[in-house]
Design goal:
339 residues, mainly alpha, 3 domains, 68% helix
Length: 339
């Protein structure tokens, strides 16, 4: 269970069905643990179990690890933060348990405390992307005890609520926490407004966020939010126009660049340009296959594009679709085009 090799309930219906069919339960999960990124998926699932254990264990039986000085705190949190910035989901998984345990331990001082909060938000974002919104929220509340209602923390809380299907509550979160809509919370608020059908208000918030942006990356975040809001308003052509203004991956950062690729693929697919959509999604899969496997939009696109894509892009998408459980298993003995 702790290593992710047996994360399902062995007394549940899955194993009962496998017993009747006389096959291995792994064949029914849609998350194979063989060739491909199976080991990495197991690492993620195991790390999630460790985070859950840290959060749910009573404090007396779950003492926080004794971090020897600020350098150790920086090491654990910095690893999670760097991994999240480059789209390395497995890298975040390796340090997630240590970061969450440190957040619940004795307060540290100086830059170590600041980095620990940032690392905690990186872990919360990782948990949210993989669908563990309850754990993400718990991690954010641990970070809040140390940091208070700062904009970056409230923005991540808003993302958790938005991903959970509560755009109205996401909007309320910024207001009830006394955080102004700025370059950090504005893009999330705009997407929530677009989901609620309030496109004109979303445009106003994004315009204000662009004015408040203090870096090229913050402007890029606004443009990705513009594209996402345009998709919510069924305007894929406008979404592509917004994405065309993005700077390169060096300025955006690998994580944001991957997000932009998935949004671009969705906009191209809704515009009827299947080859371009397949190319964008395949590029996203090559950049970060695990993040692509875990993202709901990417999985939806995989199931639609993989059967129709051609060439190397098609091979990448079919392999990803198989590993995501939305396509047939690839013949890895003959196929070497793994992402």
């Amino acid at each position: 269970m702790e290593e992710g090799s047996g994360w399902w309930d062995r007394r549940g219906r899955l194993h009962a069905a496998a017993g009747v069919l006389r096959i291995e339960a792994e064949e029914l999960t849609g998350q194979p643990y063989g060739d491909g990124p199976g080991a990495e998926l197991a690492e993620i699932r195991g790390s999630v179990m460790r985070v859950r254990r840290v959060i749910t264990s009573p404090p007396v039986s779950n003492p926080a690890p004794a971090f020897e000085g600020e350098e150790a705190v920086r090491g654990a949190a910095g690893e999670a933060l760097r991994a999240a910035e480059v789209g390395d989901e497995e890298g975040v998984a390796r340090s997630a348990g240590r970061v969450v345990a440190a957040l619940g331990g004795a307060p540290s001082d100086g830059r170590g405390a600041e980095l620990l909060v940032e690392g905690g938000m990186a872990v919360a974002g990782w948990l949210r992307r993989w669908g563990y919104r309850d754990l993400a929220w718990s991690v954010l509340q641990r970070a809040r005890v140390r940091a208070g209602p700062r904009s970056v923390l409230v923005a991540e809380e808003m993302r958790v609520l938005l991903d959970g299907g509560w755009p109205g509550r996401a909007l309320e979160r910024a207001g009830c926490q006394g955080v102004a809509v700025d370059a950090v919370t504005g893009p999330v608020a705009a997407v929530a407004l677009a989901v609620l059908g309030r496109a004109s208000e979303a445009d106003e918030v994004l315009a204000a966020a662009a004015v408040a942006a203090g870096s090229v990356r913050e402007l890029a975040v606004v443009d990705v939010a513009r594209a996402t809001a345009a998709l919510e308003a069924s305007r894929p052509v406008a979404a592509l126009e917004h994405l065309a203004r993005l700077p390169g991956v060096e300025s955006c950062g690998a994580g944001l660049w991957w997000e932009a690729l998935v949004v671009r693929a969705l906009a191209e697919a809704r515009s009827g340009d299947t080859p371009a959509a397949a190319g964008s999604l395949a590029t996203a899969g090559r950049e970060s296959p695990l993040r692509t496997l875990g993202d709901p939009w990417a999985r939806e696109l995989l199931s639609a594009l993989a059967p129709r894509a051609l060439g190397d892009d098609g091979m990448v998408l079919r392999n990803l679709a198989a590993w995501a459980g939305v396509g047939p298993q690839p013949d890895l003995a003959e196929d070497h085009h793994t992402p």
